[in-house]
Amino acid sequence: MRNKVRVFAALALGLCLLAGCGSKTPDDYATNKGYAGENRADSAAKEEGNTEIDGNTGIAKEDIKVGVLYITDPGEGSGYSYTHDLGIIGMQNNLGLTDAQIVRDIVDDEDNEATKASIEKLVADGCNVIFTTSWGYMQTTADMAEEYPDVYFSHGTGYLSNGRNFNNYFGRIYQPRYLSGIVAGMNTSSNMIGYVAAQDASNSEVTGGIDAFALGVAAVNPDAKVYVVVTNSWYAPDKEEAASRKLLDMGCDVMAQHCDTPYPQTLAQEYGVYGVGYNSDMSKETPDSCLCSVVWNWSAYYTAAVSSVINGTWDGSNYYGGMVEGVVNLTDTAAFAAEGTAERVAEATADILRGTFNIFDGELKTNTGETVGVAGGTLDDATITGGINWYYENVVVVE
What we know:
By secondary structure, the protein is α/β, with parallel strands linked by helices. It has twelve helices and 15 strands.
């Protein structure tokens, strides 16, 4: 987001709409289904008596105050900040925190000075847990964690941490990406599947997601290709719209995405073709075309993180959960999906949950003719999070 003006009135209105001002949230999938029952039980048990770790006996629930930094107004609809805020709302509901215990701010993650000023204000306001949700906040969050050792900092999508009061969190989003590839592969007629990507091959988060999606496509439809247009921005509405139209005009009849706006989905419906949503359940915007959505259930992490601060069990470790932990998932496939789609997804889901299939297993061929991985092996987490800078063989990058 390039606008450095913090529009608090708009944010308040957006959050009122998001939370429903007392009514049901518009996306229960990301606030309730994403929080595992066993975690709730564990948290409740620990609240009976705090566990001391490294001298930390926890913070009483009524004294908790959570600050959150977003790059865009979460009230805008379906994207990245929207889904994170659903997770915050889910955490608040799960733990019984009041509205006064949650403080939100919107800050350009490329503006380090504004980020620092925002964090300083959150600390001054009494926030003792601060979540910074976007990649660009990482270094400033790391610096501020050293300046405020008694505040718990947690940064999303990054890799820096200090093992004390500063960790990072992300999820195995490639797992439901693979499942959504199965859906796309079984529902394309043109064998041309479009994908709007925020970053190029140098970014393993985006590229790994594309490759997992492409592997899912190939598993059910070896003739299909995944056509990728890169915007080189995490949030760029004009570029995302242009990229979507380019792919649709090429003849892509299923649209997927790793970008913030719902343009790939809304334009897919406008063009009369299918879409695969991302971040939240995008069927609410595109009910006639959305086959499924790859969703974040951030409440699973936010609830566990704040619970650990309350219970005194925070240990500064990083978080990298997956479908087993409930932090990522795939929504149910649409009723109008091709026959057999839901069954194929269910089979692959069972294998992932059992741990018998890890997506990036065995030898994988790239679109440049190279081979990655080894027979009988699987890529480790370090490679998945930082070393996937190649595209799978059925991926075509459109310039």
